[in-house]
Amino acid sequence: MIKVLKAGLETSIQDYPGRIGYWNQGFPPSGPMDSWSFRFANVLVGNQPGAAGLECQFLGPTLFFDADTVIAVTGADMRPALDGEPFPMWQSVAVRARQTLALGAARVGGRAYIAVAGGFANEERLGSRSTFNKAGVGGIDGHSIKAGQDLPVAEGRGTPGLLVPNEHRPDIRTDRTWTIEVCAGPNDDWIDDAGKKRFLSSAWTLSAKSDRTGFRLQGPEWTFTEKAYNKPKEHGSLPSNIIDHGYPLGAINLAGQTPIILVNDGPSMGGFINPYTVPSAAFWKLGQARPGEHLHFRLVSVAEAQRMAKQIAERCVREILVNA
Amino acid sequence: MVKQVLAPLPGLFYRKPSPDAAPFKQEGDPVAAGETIGLIEAMKSFFPVEADVAGTLARFLAQDGDTVDADQAIAELE
């Protein structure tokens, strides 16, 4: 068991790829936003890459270990400390019973991941241990962890002293600027040429009104094709309204003039167009971006997006690790 | 002695509890230990920036609406 002394900011148990197969009933996949860092945390401690671990957001938790184990911390730098001593990231480390791990505020990036040998053993709901706060499903009692809770851990054997080499870690930006891949569509034909050009050439500011449901962007105006104006009334009154349809995960959903990227805990349907879609291989960047930072979008083909996802998956394996 | 008040997490800094309200503190105001001098917004939530010691608010180092990093100095108390 691991006791939660301080919960941090909506720290939650997630697994990868999350709750797959229930999108048609409104259940998003949930899971870690930066699944690159998350998978490496698990691989470091000898788990399957998708085993249940903790996602820490902007402000990390403080955890008390009641048994010896092996853990790893990856992703955002929240200056982890074990019994007050600096704790190395991107490494598997032996932790003794009665030691305390404390994460602070994120200095670089937005989300850190903690994996424990064996993984968390909370009950599966709809095939996943991931927490979906909005519906109260998964995690511990359906929600983010709380101070005083005991987190169950499965039996596991990790090897301390393993390290993810620098060149295999995600490049978490420190210059407040990100280039995020997007695929065109499904509704790019509702945006006129000037609007498409503006979208791909502008810096979009990530709003603080962003969470695991949606990432709100601030930027220039959108302009539309004839299709957005000349449509049956039931589509709705705004140019970006469309008769309710299914949303892809990663959709850049245009609510009036405000684009919102629908992320891990996002909605599965609604009445706005989705001119572009962020592929899952670029989600890690969203997970590490912070409010006020600038996003630029780069158009890629679906084939290229799939290639990127494959390259990340091929990295997150035991063979990549070296001795610390 | 000058004491800095640091941002508890990264996000957007605000000096006011809501857009139409007066700022929590003006430069020159007294501040009690634990008192809120501003807010930081992240993940659709607002978090108080609290002074951990009492003093007089000498000056703000971050402006209303600024993007701040964790542990960035927000204000100086004297």
UniProtKB/TrEMBL annotation, chain A:
Residues 24-316 form the Carboxyltransferase domain. PANTHER family: 5-OXOPROLINASE SUBUNIT C. GO terms for molecular function: ATP binding; hydrolase activity. SMART domains: AHS2 (SM00797). Keywords: ATP-binding, Hydrolase, Nucleotide-binding. The keyword ATP-binding applies. NCBIfam families: urea_amlyse_rel (TIGR00724). This is Biotin-dependent carboxylase-like uncharacterized protein. It comes from the Bacteria. InterPro entries: CT_A_B, Cyclophilin-like_dom_sf, PxpC. The lineage of its organism: Bacteria, Pseudomonadati, Pseudomonadota, Alphaproteobacteria, Hyphomicrobiales.
UniProtKB/TrEMBL annotation, chain B:
GO terms for cellular component: acetyl-CoA carboxylase complex. Residues 2-78 form the Lipoyl-binding domain. PROSITE patterns: BIOTINYL_LIPOYL. Pfam families: Biotin_lipoyl. GO terms for molecular function: acetyl-CoA carboxylase activity. InterPro entries: AcCoA_biotinCC (IPR001249), Biotin_lipoyl (IPR000089), Single_hybrid_motif (IPR011053). Pathway: Lipid metabolism; fatty acid biosynthesis. One of its GO terms (biological process) is fatty acid biosynthetic process. This protein is a component of the acetyl coenzyme A carboxylase complex; first, biotin carboxylase catalyzes the carboxylation of the carrier protein and then the transcarboxylase transfers the carboxyl group to form malonyl-CoA. This is Biotin carboxyl carrier protein of acetyl-CoA carboxylase.
